[in-house]
Amino acid sequence: MNVRLHITNWLLVLLLLSLSVSAQQIRRTRRIVPDSIDTKRSTRRGPYTIVATAGSGLSYYSTHVLIPDALEQSHLSRFGVPASFRLMWHPDHRLRVGLESGWVPMYSYRGQITGEPARVNISVIPVLVVFSMPLAWLSGTERSIARRLALTVGSGYYLNQSRLRYDGSVVGSKNSLGWMAASSYTQPIGRRFRVAGELKWYDAVSAENAAFTAEVQLVWRAFSW
Amino acid sequence: MKRYAYLVPVLFVIAFGGCRKEYEAPLPYTFTNSPGSGRFSPAVRQAIEGIYVVSDGSTQFGNEVALKWSYLLEGTDSTHYLSVFTGLDAAYFNLEGSSQTDSLVMNGYWRKLVNADIGLAHLVVQAKHNGRLQAFTGNLPVGDTLVIKGLYGSGKAAPTRPLTLQYIRPLNRKPFNIMAHRSGGRTSDLLPASENSVAIVKLASRLGATGVEMDVRYTKDGVPVLYHDNTLNLRLIQKSGLTGSLESYTYKQLSAFVRLINGEKIPTLEEALEAVVYNTGLKFVWLDTKYIGPMDPIQAIQQKYLQKAKQAGRDLNIVIGLPTTDALDSYKALKNKENTPILCELDTAITRSVGAGIWAPRWTLGPQTDEVLAMKAQGRTVYVWTLDEPTFIEEFINQNQFDGILSNYSPVVAFYHYTEQ
Fold this sequence. Notes:
The complex is a heterodimer. By secondary structure, chain A is of the alpha+beta class. Chain A has helices at 2-31, 145-148, and strands at residues 49-61, 72-77, 79-80, 83-90, 96-113, 116-134, 149-165, 169-188, 193-204, 209-224. Chain A has one domain: Porin. The radius of gyration of chain A is 22 Å and the shape is elongated. The N and C termini of chain A lie far apart (44 Å). By secondary structure, chain B is α/β, with parallel strands linked by helices. Chain B folds into two domains: 42-169; 177-419, Phosphatidylinositol (PI) phosphodiesterase (TIM Barrel, Alpha-Beta Barrel), CATH 3.20.20.190. In chain B, helix 6 runs parallel beside helix 7 (296-311). The N and C termini of chain B lie far apart (66 Å). The mean pLDDT of chain B is 93. The A-B interface holds A 1, 4-5, 8-9, 11-12, 15, 18-19, 22, 64-71, 106-107, 109, 113, 118, 120, 122, 160-162, 164, 166-168, 170-174, 179, 205-208 and B 1, 4, 7-8, 11, 14-15, 18-19, 220, 231-234, 238-245, 248-250, 252-253, 255-259.
């Protein structure tokens, strides 16, 4: 299963990267058309933009949890406050590519074992290659709702971390493959800044950790050329 | 660009549809585990053991099967189980005698280790006298033959398909060690007990093993426990959220928070050896060194349980495996090496230099006929590991050079060993 997941993840990444390259090639093909033949078409590339995004909100652990039987008066919390950071390249075509990381609390539980307090916290640090696409591009302006809505998918590694506090403290970690899918709405608030709301699903597959998050994000169009 | 439109849905189906298949083999039968043997007296049990030809059911279980009894001890009580080892798809039966009837009835289940096939089995032992089947009472006059007839099914459904076994010859009694990997079998083979648990140690004999290999590690506070992998992971343990190396947790933490896949605790080495000595008839334990560190605590436990086995009148050998040069160094650092049986997996020169009584090369090195004969000529025992491929198991057994095989598929080794002529 893991091998198949690896292959599929990388095929998806390669496919999306090749889509991005293909879009560039189409543009280049258009550029070699002499201006005398099609003077109305613009031959200027760009603009290209590097966009940095930071967000936070609420996460909800959305898959099964087993609390050890030894734990008495146990209490489970599926909610947490995640933080995410994303760096995207917005080219002059619809498909955008970038990297995302952050910290997502998954769940925690606590209780007592023969009168001694015990607590476990589980979180992940995703490191993902992400692809994003606005719902509209060729039609409408930035004022149109469709251009402000975007779908984002990502794939890569998750660093799954556990922290146990009982009979001392132990921090453990495990790498796993996984993916992410999100949809967002971006509202311009200035020439360089936007505010976005994003609903996101993180899935660290082989560690069986998955969470749904709702984030408010600050989007900074850092560089443009 | 359009060609990608067809690729995307295919990839998504593979990614999110293809990996969802549940692979499990829930046990369809609950053993009563009643102590005593009821109508299956020692004479009856002895008569039943042997090689049988399969008439009805040969497409499912092959043309020949080997029947062998094993037992579990609880204090002074013993419970007997009949295992059937087949030559097809690593299939085996686990059966117990029924005390509910006047005839020799056995109930249980069959399982194929190469897939998740499992089902119920209901068999009756009879004697064939002058071509007619009659009740078997324990006496088998010359000319009569044992016939075991019954039904087998699929899953939890009542058995409906016929199975007929007819005795043809006794088991091969040549001394040979059938060693089960990971204390009896792998969790990934969907056995009813988790690997490296006390429960799988107790099950090992019913899977054909005469010995077991245990994976020994130290917890953070120095308690030797059984666990194979480097890390806590969902392949071996139930989901508790805890990750990282087993060695970073104390035994108290593991004991409270970690359960193996089938719900068992990670056992200490002492708990596992206690089960070997007082609950099973196993004759050999191979302590595989998965740790890097001092060997003294393992040596002390080895000697303690060798002594206990001797006091209990058990013919049991417990050896410390030396799979790496690190383990070799730990062994060399022991202050007193007397009464410390070891098994060396390294080359023949190292095996000789440390005076190991057992040499255990990996099977992928081939038969190594000259080396094996030379080591045996020096009075050493030679085992081969970890051999799971039936073709090679048969070949290695037929070559008659090795004294034992370590395998994840002990029922397959048992079949080829007992049927060898």
